[in-house]
Amino acid sequence: MSNARVIAIANQKGGVGKTTTAVNLGACLATLNQRVLLIDIDPQGNTTSGVGINKADVKYCVYDVIINDVAMADAIMPSGLENLSLLPATIQLAGAEIELVPTISREVRLRRAIQTMRNQYDYIVIDCPPSLGLLTVNALTAADSVMIPIQCEYYALEGLSQLLNTVRLVQKHLNTSLEVEGVVLTMLDARTNLGLQVIEDVKKFFRDKVYKTIIPRNVRLSEAPSHGRPIIHYDPKSRGAESYMELAKEVIGRD
Ligand code: ADP
Ligand code: MG
Q: Which superkingdom (predicted)?
């Protein structure tokens, strides 16, 4: 029996490539014959729609699992892609951040739910919302490691100390085995020097934690979600598909 490796994709900044990385890393791992569960814990539900699931078809979402104690097995949906399942999010989850506050064991709800399904998968990838609230804390508490996407842009490192501080607090109080899986640089525009400078700065800060694979800016990656398809199915020959495939291999190689 295998025990899934649980990776939370987190950065409280919006628009850095969390969802794109969750969907496409998940789909590429699945293509490499890994059994993958994607967990969408962002009320925007972009990972849910990104794998082609219509929110109107969602019976139970991650909200029901962490707030209403619905069994995770009842909420997981097939994505239509081989080896790839989804625990969906809908806008209902927007209330969870506040509803969790007075709840007993509020930080460990997702972790407990995941325990029941861990032996069914090789990887569980959690897409976090753009905040450091209780939903992200639930993800970090449930995870073996956190993957941090950083956009190759000005102010790339801004706000990271807050994120790392949250990681340290979770390590101290909730999940002593949480590791920083790595930093993935995203949306590199090779035509500018700025991106190269950012890469240098991030490498100085995170050293060997930075993945060799750097995700380029690729228009096919931004089109794929509106077709409800991960890039490896939408345009397998694109640079975006190649780079997420490379990242998936690197992730497998690090285990
Ligand atoms: P987050 O989940 O961190 O808010 P997203 O993954 O949703 O970030 O990305 C923000 C926007 O940038 C989306 O419109 C997405 O399609 C686009 N995007 C993400 N990565 C790339 C990329 N490598 N190339 C081009 N567009 C990208
Ligand atoms: Mg997102």
A: Bacteria
Residue showing tokens 């081989």: 82
Cα 153-159-160 angle, rounded to 5 deg = 90
Which tens digits make up the pLDDT trace of 35-88?
999 999 999 999 999 999 999 999 999 999 999 999 999 999 999 899 999 999
Write the Ramachandran bin of 214: left for phi over 0, alpha for psi from -120 to 50, otherwise beta: beta
Nearest ligand, CA of residue 14? 1
Tokens of 245: 């495939």
Predicted TM-score (pTM) of this structure: 0.97
Per the rule left: phi > 0, alpha: psi between -120 and 50, beta: everything else, 69 is: left
Is the ipTM here above 0.95?
yes
Domain housing 84? 5-254
How many angstroms separate the alpha carbon of residue 194 from the centre of ligand 1?
Answer: 18
| Range 14-33 average pLDDT | 98
Question: Which residue of 20, 41, 44, 131 sits with most ligand 1 atoms within 8 Å of its CB, as the best mutation to test the pocket?
Answer: 20
99 Ramachandran zone, left/alpha/beta (phi>0; psi -120 to 50): alpha
Number of structural domains (the chain) is 1
> Residue 188 belongs to a domain with what CATH number?
3.40.50.300
133: nearest Cα among 101, 157, 173? 101
